[in-house]
Specification:
The protein is mainly alpha-helical. The protein has one domain: Rhopdopsin 7-helix transmembrane proteins (Up-down Bundle). Helices cover about 75% and strands about 0% of the residues. It is built from eleven helices and two strands, in the order E-H-H-E-H-H-H-H-H-H-H-H-H. The protein has a two-stranded antiparallel sheet. The longest helix has about 35 residues. The chain is globular, with a radius of gyration of 22 Å.
Length: about 325
């Protein structure tokens, strides 16, 4: 039996499909397809926004931030997901695991913050249309982006240090094919109450607070929309909110499902917990570009021109 005075486990074992290890290889192809679609979709969004002068507006700058957050979140989870399901490499050093969890949680927080910024953008555009460009100037947009990033980094920065202080001398098997704070924390044989309390506070003051701000923001937006006299203008205003609302639902619905299954679904199969966690990490980055490409006319037209130009040739 390892002594509590030393860390006996310097590596963790990642988990593929619980109870079905022989199916792991067949997960590799869908995963590669999902990651490829994520990269292609989000890079296309970034290219279209950069190349189109008409898209150099606050709404599209925030969309570019969302695409960067999606790409970063995918890159954070991809190495271990592919290594587990394709190469069956399941062992991950403690420091690598801590680094991965830092980036996953950081970019998850960034995505949540960007969604709040996009809601603020829609409120300003609908409530103060004539002052829209003045209020959301390039300088203000840059400050919002930096604030979102710094807030997320500051919230997650203590986590690696809190994990490093723990001793791991029992099971080293994680629940997923990537490292999350709550998953690593539960394997500690030392007192992890500080980690648990800090993790809860970080979630409350970032994700939960963002969710409340988003709720209030869209209530205010719809109050402003209802006060518009022209029905055509009301419909136009609502249509500009459709894509940001879809992005909010794509992010928060899987997150809530994963949280509820973690706290109240102890009787559920481990495969269900893994499915919920994978949906949370993989679904928003894949579908956000699709939603914006389909629902945003300017982006849709520019993508169509790029495709047509490619078919016609140089």
């Amino acid at each position: 039996m390892p002594s509590l005075n030393q860390t006996s486990n310097n590596h963790f074992t990642l988990t593929g499909i619980p109870g079905m290890p022989e199916k792991d290889f067949w997960m590799a192809l869908p995963l590669c397809l999902l990651y490829s679609t994520t990269f292609l979709g989000n890079i296309t969004i970034l290219y279209v926004i950069k190349a189109g002068q008409s898209l150099h507006e606050p709404m599209y700058y925030f969309l570019a931030m969302l695409a960067v957050a999606d790409l970063s979140l995918s890159l954070s989870s991809m190495p271990t997901m592919i290594s587990v399901h394709w190469f069956n490499w399941r062992s991950v050093p403690l420091d690598v695991c801590i680094t991965q969890m830092f980036f996953i949680h950081t970019f998850g927080g960034v995505e949540s913050g960007v969604l709040v910024a996009m809601a603020f953008d829609r409120f300003v555009a609908i409530r103060f249309p004539l002052r829209y460009a003045t209020i959301l100037s390039h300088g203000v947009i840059c400050k919002i982006g930096v604030a979102v990033l710094l807030r997320s980094v500051a919230a997650v920065l203590p986590v690696p240090f809190l994990i490093k202080r723990l001793l791991f001398c029992h099971s080293s098997v994680l629940s997923y094919a990537y490292c999350l704070h709550q998953d690593v924390m539960r394997l500690a044989c030392a007192d992890a109450h500080v980690n648990s309390i800090y993790g809860l506070l970080a979630v409350i003051f970032s994700i939960v607070l963002d969710a409340l701000v988003l709720l209030v923001s869209y209530i205010l937006i719809f109050q402003v929309v209802l006060s518009i006299a022209s029905q055509a203008e009301r419909l136009k205003a609502v249509s500009t909110c459709f894509s940001p609302i879809c992005a909010v639902l794509l992010f928060y619905a899987p997150l809530m499902g994963m949280t509820l299954s973690h706290h109240f679904g102890k009787h559920l199969s481990p495969a269900v917990h893994m499915l919920m966690a994978n949906i949370y990490l993989l679904l928003p980055p894949v579908l956000n570009p699709v939603v914006y490409s389909v629902r945003t006319k300017q982006i849709r037209l520019r993508i169509s021109r790029i495709i047509c130009r490619g078919r016609i040739g140089p």
